[in-house]
């Protein structure tokens, strides 16, 4: 485990389309990333799997291939939007930090836990209620899952209720 | 919410007799506390309530007042031991930081959550599996409870399995 003195920590931040993950990212940039450090910030977005869309339909209606394609396109656009917003947040707050991005397909709980190990993250930062209330009902709590299954320290950031912001979608 | 640039953050660290909370404290001192900052570290120890001791007995045997007194004395000694060890860890790693200590009676889940609000902590640091496996069976997971109920960011630190250490008791 590296530390502030040694620098070169790998800080993994799970981002999604909600305000809370952007707040978590800002908080991390202000409170975790050391001044003049060699920290690398890795922004990770998990594109929820098809099963979530199927569950959201709920009618048992079988989507056509065109509908699937449109939904895949939508998911890719959301991923782009989230990453652009996250990178802008990084640029606005810390121009000196090295930023990498990763978009992976799958259940966010599994994707984030696996990537934390695979990328040898020194710390994982997640919003308290990522992936929205509807998706969470199907996916379960991402932050809870990560806190229990990831070996590195996990920082769970809750957005204060008084702090207004704008959604990505 | 203050940040590194402004300094003067109030960092609340829940400590207990296990190795994991001391590891969490060390990690915090190395990774969260900024160099030359005005951060205040507040070490919090929650003395588990009598109900835990009663549950641990399990036989329905009614303890005598002498037994209760001995157990209270034991709990106070453990609290002292934990705090001394925690303060030494702070001194060893960061001599420049302001350290405060608090010992409160009650269910650690409630004590830590309440103190985080009451002390207006900017961040709460807890070990992943505080308060030992036996007590946890009765008390539930402290870190889970805090992550769900505390409004400030919560950092859950898991001690790597390869990193050996010594228990306080």
Automatic annotation (TrEMBL), chains A, B:
It holds the Pfam family Usp. Coiled coil: none annotated. It comes from the Eukaryota. SUPFAM superfamilies: Adenine nucleotide alpha hydrolases-like (SSF52402). Residues 9-158 form the UspA domain. This is UspA domain-containing protein. The lineage of its organism: Eukaryota, Viridiplantae, Streptophyta, Embryophyta, Tracheophyta.
